Amino acid sequence: MAEDKFILYDIPSKDGASCWSLNPWKTRLALNFKGIDYKTQWVEYPDIEPLLKSFGLPPQPDEPRPWTLPTARFPQDGSYVMESRAIADEIEKRYPAPEWPSLRLDDPAVERAKAHLRPTAGALMPVILPQVPRVILSEYSAEYFWRTRAEAFGMPLVEWAAKEGGEDGEKAWERSRAGFAEVAEALRETEGPFYLGETVSYADFIFVGFLHFLKRAVGEKDFERLKEWPEIIALYEACGKWLERDSH
Q1: Sheet containing 6-10: which strands, arranged edge to edge?
Q2: Residue span of the signal peptide, if any (predicted)?
Q3: Beta-strand (E) ranges in 197-236?
């Protein structure tokens, strides 16, 4: 008998189980927005690859980590889909408008929001990444994270972070300012608070997923730096009700 609920496979935090990572948040926000009944299965970092292989999922080509979360299991036929955009496409197909609210995946705003991640999230990775194993992950996953990122960067993660972002991270924060200003300018093109004005879309979940990840990693005090751009805070707060469900 097929499982009667959508299953979201996500990475737990050290507090037991709560969503924190950017890409799983994209999927979770979409599910919460659409009102789809789902449950979460938590998977620690070292267990992701063997679990997804057991589902028969092929590796993602040209990716440093070929098996990743989020992954989803659809109740209609028990099929598995890996990667947040692929999951969003399948969600929209299986839970279409008008019965379910649309994610508006074809709107140009979606690609625009993706582009906005590069100068913001990309710039702040030296600040964010060391905080993931320090303050978010369990000891089991943290060891994996430190090791695999050191392998990827060719040096310990803290050394890479200091080199790229400055000893105190200020170089990274300064580098991100132009990107956040660009996002704020885009949001000012409508009356807001969303990318499409009063209409919610997947574009919002792409950027708000990053904002929530950033807040979890750096803490409230550093997150308050974004108050320089009220439009960004307004977008984040407007999506607050879809951020509430983060632990099941």
Answers
A1: 38-42, 6-10, 71-73, 80-82
A2: none
A3: none
List the Cα angle 195/126/64 in 5-degree steps: 85
Q: Between the CA atoms of 29, 94, 99 and 189, what dihedral angle is there, to the nearest 10 degrees?
A: 50
Q: How far apart are CA 239 and CA 243, in angstroms?
A: 7
Count helices and strands (H / E) in the chain: 12, 4
Question: Residue 95: what residue type?
Answer: Y
Residue at token pair 């499982």: 3
**Positive or negative torsion for Cα 91, 96, 102, 104:** positive
d(CA 62, CA 87): 19
Pairs from 78-81 (Cβ < 8 Å, separation ≥ 24): 78/2, 78/3, 80/52, 80/55, 80/56
pTM of the entire structure? 0.96
The contacts of residue 63 (CB under 8 Å, 6+ apart) are none
Give CA–CA dist 156/186, Å, rounded.
37
Q: Where are the beta strands (DSSP E) in the chain?
A: 6-10, 38-42, 71-73, 80-82
- Output the CA–CA distances (angstroms, integers) from residue 239 to 40, 120, 138, 233, in the order listed: 20, 19, 28, 10
